Every structure is written in structure tokens, then in C-alpha cells.
Amino acid sequence: MFQRLQPEAANPTVTFTIDGKPVKARAGDTVAAAMLAAGLHYCRTTPVSGAPRAPYCMMGVCFDCLVTVDGIGNRQGCLVRVRDGMQVELQLGKRELGR
Amino acid sequence: MIVSVRLFFGALADAGSFVLDRTYSSEAVGTRIRIERQSMTRAKPTEFDVAVIGGGLMGSAIAWGLAKVGQRVTVLDEGDVAFRASRGNFALIWVQSKGLGLAPYSAWTMRSSNAWAGFADALKEQMGIDVCFQRPGGFNLSLSERELENRRSLLQRIQDQPGMQRFDFEMLDPARVKQAIPQIGPEVVGASYSRYDGHCNSPRLFRALNAAMQQLGVAYLPEHRVDRIEYVAREFRLFSARGEIRASKIVLAAGIDNVRLGPMVGLDVPVRPQRGQLIVTERTAPFLNYVVQTVRQTDEGGLMFGDSQEETGADPSVTSPVISVLANRAVRMFPQVANLNIVRTWAALRVMTKDGFPIYDQSERCPGAFCASCHSGVTLAAAHALFLAPCIAAGDLPAAQFKPFSSRRFDVPALAA
User: What is the pLDDT of residues B276-297, one digit of tens each?
Assistant: First the structure.
């Protein structure tokens, strides 16, 4: 769905996981951008109706890019830069207390 | 910036009149024009059995109750500028700690709490709106031995009053609290518990009552702040910028504004605003199976932390020192909430009487004028709809039931010199 504008850019590659599955991204990518580049169609489901949602505004406003990052729920994927070894999980519904 | 311009076309009296509400917004490209039909500016004032002044939870519950027993009712509401406790409350239906100093208030509260399930069912049956009433029992968590002892003493003194309809409560040690609520932190030294406490979704209650009363024929009139009330030939004439309304009976349910309206019909309603600040977090997976007096998980998952009691006049501002205390106490009670994101803080103004108990009264000078003021519009909504409204419809508040709530209790005779 999304393609990189500069496929040959020189940024080093990092590897993180989405729900345990390894995914490659560029250093400097936000988690939201990396998930879109990896071809995901949604990153969360809403807490009341369970509707799937994908990153939308990419600038910290819409809260539709919520994911669990390294065990902490409801992080805004567009405001977190992806790191080597980062563990990202889809945010399915409500955040759990203690996560 | 938003500028609102209202143009009034009173000439179209036969068909009702029209208000052109034009909202200019610097953010929007277009201009929204809303035309709403108004029915209250006909040449002859519309007459009702009862005019309720105030369209919050108090006025709406009474109006719905009146309509259910066949009264022709109108509700005159101020509008979105009104201080609206109905939109800012904590949504508890709370019994355990109410009524020290006035046993009938405890009984009235319990009666409402007991009627709440049927009240919620009736709204659901009529409008299909679930107000999410639950009565799982309520805890008040103490964070020090002194708080715990004060709590035990308060609840015991309530039960020991003369004329009290006693009910059971328990004081629990931390281990027993933890059995019910495993997420409590080590600073919780104990709790009081009563099985009679509950909660609801109060914004949905407000919407359900507003819709339900109109479905029963109540004429809901927003933007009708009442400027003046006259009592002529056993009839009330209510004047607002939108015209005149006539009714055989009136109910003052205007919150803090009852102070201004009461004397127009021979009623003294000494109430003041008392500020409460609240916090709500992001929606969280359900974990709290009980109601905690200052920590509540809504049906949709948000955690609410309340609630302050501040004598700051009619100022609904949020202040960070108070919000900090609310958040700090919530975190000490439930350490895991520290990581949750707060999505909103707000303040609302309670309608507080001198002694904290409700005022229900009827005018001697202007028979047919009633007033109702309280700070527990959610807890008492069932009582207002099902028990108070029928008495108003019948034209009399029976002394046996309502004398303890008359504002004449504040008329203390001057001491002899």
C-alpha cells in the first residue's frame, strides 16, 4: 500500500518485532511509519466497538496509531522512533492495567 | 473564534417562529445555518399544568416523573452557558455515608437507591438507552489509620441516630479489601464497605431523561432563562427573552439559580456552588468490579478520579494543585494507574445547601410553587422521578415525608438577649 520514496536511502536497517514477528525498518522511522512500510493494514482496534484503525495523522494528534511498545500500552506509534530489538504489539482494544 | 448571531423572526407566529442561528467560524470554510422551530412565541401564552425551571438531571427527572402521571409539562432550560452539574458529576449512586444529622435523608437516599434498578429499566424500555446502572457495592479506601477511624466513626454515628432506618456496613482490613480488589496498593490500611452503593453512566442518564420526557410530550425549551415570575389569579407567568409561559404549578430546579428565583414565589433556597474537580483516564480493560468512592471505572473503561470539595464560588476552573492531590491519592490506592494516560480533567459546581441535605419545599405565599435543590442529582434521580414528582402533580408535599427537607429548618430563632 505504501512505498518508500527513496528505496536506496543510506540509513542503516534496524530490526524490530510486530507481535513477535521480525520486521525490518530504517533507522529514524517512527513505529507508525515502519508499520505502514511493512504493509500492515491496521495497528489497533478501538476500545469500544473493536473497529480496526491505522495511523492517520502521523503527527501526534489522532491517536489512531496506538500500539504497545516494549510492554507499555497505548503508545502513539507516530511519536516513537523504532529501535533495533523493539517489541511492538498491536493494541487490541482497551489497554490493560499494568501494561 | 466563533461568533454566533441570532436573528428572530417573531412575525411567523402562526407557524411558530424561526430562529436563524448563524455560526461564523474562522476555522471552517463554510457557514453553517441552522433553522430551528420554536413554538413559544405565539400571541397567546402556552399553558401547562407544570413548568419546570431547569433542565438538568433534577429538572429532567421531575419532568419525566410528572409526565408519567399525566401532567402537561414544560421544561425551561437556560442553555449551554448554564453551570451544569449534570454534565460534570462523578455518577455514583451512593448511600453509605449520607445522612449524619438528618436520618430522613439517609432513608430518602436508600429509597432512591432501591428504586434505581426499576428506574433504569423504565428508561431502557422506553428509549432503548442503557444507563448502565450497577450496584456492586462500594468501598471507601483509607490511606491512614486516622482516616480509617474517622470513617468508622462517621458510619457508626449515622447508624446510631434516632429515627435511623439502620442498614449494614462493614469495616474491612487490607487483606479483605485485597480479596475483592487485588489491585490495591500497600498504603491502603482498610476500607468501609456497603453493599448498597452503585453507579451509572450519568451522561447517558442525562440524555435518556431528556429524550424520554420529550417522548412523553414534555415541551423542552432551551435558551429560556427565566427573568421574572408573576403569580396572578392562582397561575404562574414566567417571562424569558423568548416570551411568556403560563402554568398552574412551577418547580424551581435551576440549581444555584434557585437562590434568585425562589424569592419571586415566596421560597427561600439558600444554596451555594461547591466546586469538585475530576480526572478521567484513557479506556482501560475492566478490572474494578466494585465502586470506590473516589475511583470509578466507567462502563466503557475510563477510570475517573475524584473529587474535591472546594469553596471557591461560581468558578468552574481546574487547578493543578487539586488535580495533583486527586491523582496522588488514586496512585497510592492503585499503584498501577500511575502509568495510565489522563485524557481529561474538569470541574463542576455542586449545588450545596448549608447542611448538605436536600431542600424540597412548597410556597405558602404562592401555592403551586415548589423547589428542589440537592448535590446528589444522580443518586436521587429515581426518588425525584418516582416519589417527588407524583406529590408535585398532586399539588402537595406531604409533611410526614418532606417537612425535614423544608428550608424552614434554617430559620433558627434569634436567641434572647
Answer: 999 999 999 999 999 999 999 9
B286 contacts on A by Cβ (under 8 Å): 94
Taking the whole predicted model, whether its pTM rises above 0.90 is answered as: no
Tell me how close the Cα of A33 comes to any Cα of chain B, in angstroms. 23
- For the stretch B102-159, pLDDT in tens is 999 999 999 999 999 999 999 999 999 999 999 999 999 999 999 999 999 999 999 9
B73's grid cell: 409539562
For cell 524490530, the residue is A16
Pick the CATH number of A13-92 from 1.10.1240.10, 3.10.20.440, 3.90.550.10, 3.40.50.300: 3.10.20.440
CA–CA dist B64, A83 (Å, integer): 59
Sketch the domain layout of chain A as residue ranges.
13-92
Selecting from B286, B300, B340 the residue whose C-beta is nearest the C-beta of A48 gives B300
Burial of B286 (0-12, 13-18, 19+ CB in 10 A): middle
CB contact under 8 A, A95 and B285: yes
